[in-house]
Amino acid sequence: MNKQFFTENRVVYRAVVAAGDPWMYEVKAGQYFRIVDLEGNQAVDTLFYNAQDHSERYSATDTIREQGNIYLTTGSVLQSNLINPMLTIVDDTCGRHDTIGGACSAESNTVRYAIEKRSMHSCRDSFLTALGKCSCNHDKPMTKADLSSNINFFMNVPVSPDGHLDFDDGISAPGRYVEMQAHMDVLVLVSNCPQLNNPCNGYNPTPVEMIIWQ
Amino acid sequence: MSDFPKPKPSFIWSEILPGGAHWSGVIRRGTVLRLTDLEGNANVAMLINNLEVKNERYNMPDTLKAQKTAFLTAPNMCFSDMGRVMCSIIADTCGWHDTLGGLSNASLVQKKYGIKTYQQAHNDYFKNAYDSLLNELGKWGLNASDVVPNINWFSKVRIEDSGQMTFVPNHSQAGSTVDLRFEMDCIVCLSTVQHPLDPNIYYAPKPVELSVSKANPVLADDPCRKHRAENERAYYNTKTYYGENPNE
């Protein structure tokens, strides 16, 4: 896929998603989808579904295995669970993105930090809020079972050859963005991560901007 | 009827699963499932669901993040997406089990090995892990949305600093075992098809033995619980789920 030059008059949708908010929107085949890390160090937990058939969805393991690398960046083809290309990352001013770290949840917060953290806001609660209110799923409601391993745009989860995995400070900065082109109509489900307990968003969740253009 | 295989004295039951097979069953809380790689170079793709609340399932990211590891061995625990422990790896003679490589599917198997249908080869036909697990999940009312990142027991995928994934051949030896102590009543679905990154150009899946024995009580100083504070908190959550005093 070829990178096209972005111009304002080709923008069809633009919105700022506040820190901690869910966001759900459909990106049509051929359109470009850009996520801008407005203030830097934010993690954007993202899932993709085939807009015509939600049972086809982004697959982290198929994506990394087919490209032979655990990090996502320019050129990465985001694969579905049926190993169909869903989107290709065509531009990336951050450098790499994580897809094995998953999304925080109220329950995993009790395990990772403290039992008392259950009531804190989490990504999987944002995902479920969006799915619960979505008008796109009247025929076949989407549920928790539709939440598989997501992409964490702008997040840094290094793995070493001895198998050690860690959450590191972000490698993003204000204004950095990642942009992808859709190969099919995709429903995008985002939690703009509210995590306050680890450095994935610098302990300070901040807004991101979503831009769709063609 | 005296022809059923007799389990070894310490096992409640045992069964040999041929290469390329798929299997599912309930493994109860308080029992140990031992997987034995009978010939070496086996691969066992596994998905785990809670028997009672089936949409609770093994979660790869939560398992890895909590234990700061990209692979599984003793004394790791396998965490569910609900902050609980599904099973604990209490012994492991293999040393590294993959959690990142995922499953083979029909197109990958055809590209790698060609086509061998049931009509041609009867039960030696080429199977793939995705379809095999879909088949087993379906028997419990589960479906494609339950195919999440799985465990590949006995396979090793190394991650270079660049992020490159490398399958390590000849990793598991004949006789390698891994012992999983189940902490919840679980539906376990298995496929013994080769790992999707296995460079062997021949379709040659290997047999494994499943054997179940009674677990010893989990004590307060259990090495899996004590491995990390995260493990102890997940075990605490599991105890509360079963209505037990979590501080015992």
UniProtKB/TrEMBL annotation, chain A:
Residues 16-187 form the DUF1989 domain. InterPro entries: DUF1989, UAAP2. PANTHER family: RE64534P. NCBIfam families: urea_degr_1. This is Urea carboxylase.
From TrEMBL, chain B:
It comes from the Bacteria. Residues 16-187 form the DUF1989 domain. Pfam families: DUF1989 (PF09347). This is Urea carboxylase. It comes from Thiosulfativibrio zosterae. The lineage of its organism: Bacteria, Pseudomonadati, Pseudomonadota, Gammaproteobacteria, Thiotrichales.
